[in-house]
Each structure stands twice: as structure tokens, then as C-alpha cells.
């Protein structure tokens, strides 16, 4: 039964930022399940997501531009007959000092991680609202949205805004059979994270302090997207699904351990 409800043959799926990292994993998972997958970005990728003999289609788009988002989605609807699933995955931010980072960087991070998802969702809505089956929009947020995000404050604020946007659009667009949900994604091992955390050894050290004893993978996020886009989640909208392996260890546990050690020495 599960294989049947997770069969996306005939479905049209758009994954923003779908050429690398988490987005690539999402695109490949939908390809595996039979969907027609379109990925987009500002630059042509070196290689496209594939599954077996099936390959994603690439269309150029700067998701921070509302006009380009509309052109992209209108083109997909014209060429493929509609759009069933939108995954707003494009995002990211460099680490910067919040006191001195430039206004242009702040604006750019918010545009990429929040405004772009709004623009793309508006474009998808224009197509999905006229489809008998409606559609599914999945916003990829982050644990930075629900905890402090030092040295990436604009990113955390934008991802928090994305969670509110998810709830608001789910409320507004539910009568048009458009479901809108979000994933709160934790630490995921990708090519970029391997470099950031010091290679395989660093990733293993971080994984060891997480409840499930490992960092997430793009496939973990992709499987959550498959669920939210499928009939299994037909009554799920406005939800914020946490995909973080149990979450990060609360700081107060370390503080309590330090306090107990200090008391014992006295």
C-alpha cells in the first residue's frame, strides 16, 4: 500500500535549489518515485539529479525575482500541464558578525530564505488553485528558526518567518485544496557540511552528541517531503514537521553537570 501512495508517476514537482545538497536529495527521491522533476537555479549545474535512467530538468531562475518565479511556473504549467508539488528549498547564509554585517547581506539573506519562497508560492498558487487536486507546497525551514542563531541572525529570522508564512498560506489557501507545510531541518551531512565541520571525523563527532547518534542525510529530508506531498498527508496542512534526529542537546544539561562537578569539589 505504501508503495502505491508514494507513487508520484504523472506528478509535476519543482524543487528550488535542487541541483546540490538537500535539494538534490529531494529531487532524486521524487525521480525515484516516478515524478517529472524540475530543478532551478541561477547558474547551469555541472550535473543534474538522476535516478537510474531518469533525469531532472533544469530551468534557470533567480528565485529572489518575482517575475522570474512567475515565468518559471507558468512555463512548467504550459509545457507539462500543471504543477503538483513545490519544494521551496533554496536558502543558506554565510556566518557573519551581526553587529557589522552589511545591509545588503542582511537583505540578500532574507530575500533568499523568506521572500523567494513567498514569490514562488504565489506563482504556484496561480496554477494550483485551478487544478482539481490542488497542490502541495513544502517549505524547507531550519532549527535556526526555533532557537537562537548567532552569527546567522538574518538567516534564523528569515527561517522563523517562513514558518509563520507556512501557517498563514495554509489557512488562506486550504479552501483551494492547496496544502502548505514546513520541515524544521536539523544538522544534515552534505558536501558543504563536510568541509564546514572538518570532514568525516567532524561529522561523526557531531553525530555522536545527537539523540539518534548521527547527522541527518539529504534522503532523510527527502523522505519527509515524500510523505507531506503524498495522500498519506491528505489532511496535513500548516504543519511544522521536525526532522532533526531528536534535536540538539540543551545547554542547561551541560551547565547542570558543570555545577554538580563544582559543588563536589567544594
Give an overview of the whole structure.
- By secondary structure, the protein is α/β, with parallel strands linked by helices.
- The chain has 9 helices and 9 strands.
- The protein has helices spanning 2-5, 21-32, 66-80, 103-128, 153-173, 191-196, 199-208, 218-229, 251-265, and strands at 12-16, 36-41, 50-51, 54-55, 57-60, 85-88, 135-142, 178-185, 240-243.
- The strands form 2 sheets. The chain has a 7-stranded parallel sheet with strand order 5-2-1-6-7-8-9, with helices on both faces. A two-stranded antiparallel sheet has the order 3-4.
- Helix 5 links the parallel strand 7 (135-142) and strand 8.
- Helix 2 packs across helix 8.
- The longest helix is centred in the middle third of the chain and has 26 residues, at 103-128.
- The protein is globular, with a radius of gyration of 19 Å.
- The protein starts with a helix and ends with a helix.
- The model has no long low-confidence stretch (mean pLDDT 94).
- How large is the radius of gyration? 19 Å
Report the strand count.
9
**Beta content:** 15-25%
Termini separation: 62 Å
Mean pLDDT: 94
Layout of strands and helices, then pairs:
Elements: H1 2-5, E1 12-16, H2 21-32, E2 36-41, E3 50-51, E4 54-55, E5 57-60, H3 66-80, E6 85-88, H4 103-128, E7 135-142, H5 153-173, E8 178-185, H6 191-196, H7 199-208, H8 218-229, E9 240-243, H9 251-265
Parallel strand pairs: 1-2, 1-6, 2-5, 6-7, 7-8, 8-9
Antiparallel strand pairs: 3-4
Helix pairs in contact: 2-8, 3-4, 4-5
Amino acid at each position: 500500500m505504501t508503495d502505491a501512495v508514494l507513487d508520484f508517476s504523472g506528478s509535476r514537482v519543482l524543487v528550488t535549489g535542487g541541483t546540490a545538497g538537500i535539494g538534490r536529495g529531494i529531487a532524486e527521491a521524487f525521480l525515484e518515485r516516478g515524478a517529472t522533476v524540475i530543478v532551478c537555479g541561477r547558474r547551469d549545474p555541472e550535473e543534474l539529479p538522476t535516478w537510474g535512467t531518469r533525469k531532472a530538468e533544469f530551468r534557470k531562475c533567480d528565485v529572489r525575482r518575482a517575475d522570474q518565479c512567475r515565468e518559471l511556473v507558468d512555463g512548467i504549467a504550459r509545457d507539462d500541464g500543471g504543477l503538483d508539488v513545490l519544494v521551496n528549498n533554496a536558502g543558506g547564509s554565510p556566518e557573519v558578525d551581526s553587529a557589522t554585517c552589511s545591509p545588503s547581506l542582511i537583505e540578500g539573506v532574507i530575500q533568499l530564505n523568506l521572500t523567494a519562497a513567498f514569490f514562488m508560492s504565489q506563482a504556484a498558487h496561480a496554477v494550483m488553485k485551478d487544478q482539481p487536486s490542488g497542490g502541495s507546497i513544502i517549505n524547507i525551514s531550519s532549527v535556526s528558526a526555533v532557537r537562537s542563531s548567532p552569527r546567522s541572525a538574518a538567516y534564523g529570522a528569515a527561517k522563523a518567518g517562513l514558518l509563520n508564512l507556512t501557517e498563514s498560506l495554509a489557512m488562506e489557501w486550504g479552501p483551494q485544496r492547496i496544502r502548505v507545510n514546513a520541515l524544521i531541518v536539523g544538522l544534515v551531512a552534505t558536501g558543504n557540511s563536510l568541509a564546514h565541520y572538518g570532514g568525516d571525523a567532524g561529522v561523526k563527532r557531531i553525530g555522536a552528541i545527537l539523540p539518534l547518534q548521527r547527522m541527518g542525510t539529504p534522503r532523510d529530508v527527502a523522505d519527509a517531503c515524500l510523505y507531506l506531498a503524498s495522500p498519506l498527508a491528505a489532511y496535513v496542512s500548516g504543519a511544522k514537521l521536525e526532522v532533526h534526529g531528536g534535536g540538539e542537546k540543551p545547554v542547561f544539561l551541560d551547565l547542570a553537570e558543570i555545577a554538580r562537578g563544582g559543588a563536589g569539589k567544594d
